Amino acid sequence: MEETELCFPQLLNSSCVRQKRPQIEAVCIYTLLSSISLLTAVLNLLVIISIAHFKQLHTPTNLLLLSLAVSDFFVGLIMACQISLLDGCWFLGDHMCALYSSLDYIATSASVGTMVLISADRYVAICDPLHYPPKITIKRVSLLLFYFNSCLNPLIYTFCYPWFLKSIKLIVTFKIFRHCSSKASIL
Predict the structure, then answer these.
(1) Which class is domain 21-183?
(2) Which of 3, 11, 18, 155 has the most crowded Cβ, counting Cβ within 10 A?
(3) Confidence band of 15 (pLDDT split at 50, 70, 90)
C-alpha cells in the first residue's frame, strides 16, 4: 500500500496531498517550464529594449507591441512561481499566494487586452488605411494602454520583423551603448 504524503503533515486533515511523480518526469517538467519562463522573460525584455530605445520604432503599432511585451515579460516572471505549484504545494505563505494570484490575473489580463488592441489596430490599418494615421496616433494609443499595460508573443509578433532582428544584434553586441545609437537606421 502506497503511503500518502501531505504538503504540511502537521496540519493532518487540512493539508493538501503532495503529488508524487517519477524523478525523471519531474526533472523534465521543471526543466521545460523553467526554460519557457526564462525564454519568455528574456525575449520580451529584448522587445522592450528595442522599441523603447530606437526612435524609428516609436510608432502607434510598436507602442502596442511594447505594451504586450511588458505584460508578457511579467507573465514570464510570474510563471516561475507557478512552476513551484507542480507538486500541489504552496510554501510561500498566504500573503504571497494572494499577491501571486493578483499579479497573475493582472498580467494575463493585460496581455489579452493588449492583443485585442493590436487586433483593432491591424483592422483599422487594413480596412481603412487612408484614415489610419489620423485615427491611430501615439497619443491615443498611449491613453488605450494606460489601463492595459502590465510570453511567447515576441516570437509571433516581433521575430517576424527584420528591424527587430537588427535591433537585437545591436543590443547583444552592446552597440546600443554607442553615442547616437538610438538614431541608427534599422528599418
Answers:
(1) mainly alpha
(2) 18
(3) low
Residues 6 or more apart whose CB falls under 8 angstroms from that of 78 comprise 100, 103, 104, 107
Instruction: Provide the pLDDT for residue 177.
Output: 92
Alpha carbon of residue 79 to chain centroid: 10
183 vs 179: CA distance, rounded Å: 9
Q: How many helices (H) and strands (E) are present in the chain, helices listed first?
A: 7, 0
Query: What is the pTM (predicted TM-score) of this model?
Result: 0.70
Q: Select, from the ranges 67-71, 95-99, 136-140, the one with the highest average predicted confidence (pLDDT).
A: 67-71
Other Cβ atoms closer than 10 A to 50:
27
Quote the CA–CA distance of 157 and 151 in Å, as a whole number.
Answer: 11
Whole-number Å distance between alpha carbons of 78 and 108: 10
